[in-house]
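Troubleshooting entry. The earlier prediction with dihydropyrimidine-2,4(1H,3H)-dione gave an output that would not parse, so I re-checked the input for stray whitespace and re-submitted. Clean input:
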Amino acid sequence: MTSTATTTPGDRQFDLVVRNGKVATASDTYQADIGIIDGRIAAIADDLPKGKRDIDARGRWVMPGGVDSHCHVEQLSGMGLMCADDFYSATVSAAFGGNTTIMPFAAQHREDSVRDVLEDYSARAAEKSVIDYAFHVIVTNLDEQTLNEDLPRAIRQGVTSLKVFMTYERMKLDDYQILDTLALADREGALVMVHAENNDVIRWLGDRLTERGLKAPKYHAVAHAGLAETEATHRVVTLSRVLETPILIVHVSEAETLDCIRQAQQKGAALYAETCPQYLFLTAADIDKPGVEGAKFCCSPPPRDERCQTAMWQGLTEGSLTLYSSDHAPYRWDETGKLPKGEKTGFREMANGLPGLEVRMPLLFSEGYRKGRLTINEFVALTSTNHARTYGLYPRKGTIAVGSDADIVIWDEGREITITNDLLHDNVDYTPYEGMKVTGWADTVINRGRVVVENGELKVSRGTGEFLPCGLPEPVAKARANRQPDTLIRELVGKPTGGDQG
Ligand code: DUC
Ligand code: ZN
Ligand code: ZN
């Protein structure tokens, strides 16, 4: 317990007290009351005085609100398709799923300036969000303006993570450009996230499949071969090791990729990795549905097989994978997303991505914690704390401690739910998890002391979520602290620029 205060600081009455809950953080489990003033946790103790409002959490878990650090909201894909969720529907859905922070992407397309892109996303998010949010930038054009001005400025303003793609003709960077991005991130204090798939393998296999008329959704999983992911991961991890700089591989799906990650980590690489619900709870067999039904399960990389599912669970429990994110990429099962050509849509024409903001935490709680694969503390780390640490939001977010934002989910561990799309609050017309039974569901969700969800109802209005400037990502801070005396290669990368991120 962080504090045993029984009176309020300065004898002010608490705005809110969450009473008698079983508090779980990434490191501790205990029973306590939590007193909140001005949106922050002001005291944690056994028997706090009455607040202006009290919520009795007896018998329920009281955990840090989820931080979903990988989702796509109101974003135009590389194929030019707009996501089905805007910042309102996405944040409402996230909140009902137990989250208090999301980290979507501000996507630069090749003709865009990062500065304009960030202004545009910031305005849309500020107007609509109901919970807090931070941004990553997707970088597709590394012209002088982007490299020398816009990205350094974005990083100073608190957008301290950059995503790069190794596939998609209209998004991908070559190895030279990735090295430029890694060096820039290293100097300026940002973390590079990578979509690692070998573009030419996917293109070659896709061309051959198409020549044979094999266009059904299930061929998406054939074209996006597991080894295409493994090869690209090995390559980009090697690039980061050459420069001795940290890197994060997002949405890992393939067992061999995880072997490669583990080996590099064992050699001391500053390498971090994420997996997502679709790689734990779906397989390629789900894509093999009649007609175009399989489009509901097409994402990149695709769900694989049971061997890969088992590997992903092992990665989460052993710590080679430290992040579990939704990769919510919402597209409807209609002509606006998955089926631009209706029943005739081929696997190369359908939007890539699955919804998952609202079910991410319940699925892991039910299959991970309830089934004994994870402790409650590991559940908290994987859904909240590790995300805040990785992206420079800790300890403001990701924990329950005096001084942290009062971001709390009160979790009903016995509630049995059959997931159906009707239950969910996103703007997608299906869920890939339809019919799955889970035990455990978010009951009350509190963001900066504001009750956002209670009794199945949204309690706040649009535009009340706040932008979160991220600080120095922990992987970058650790790499700087552990750095050996400078080598010539490190000299070529360049020194940290200092300033806020120093
Ligand atoms: N990459 C993502 O991270 N999400 C959806 C599609 C993609 O390629
Ligand atoms: Zn990706
Ligand atoms: Zn994604």
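This one parsed fine. The mean pLDDT is 96.
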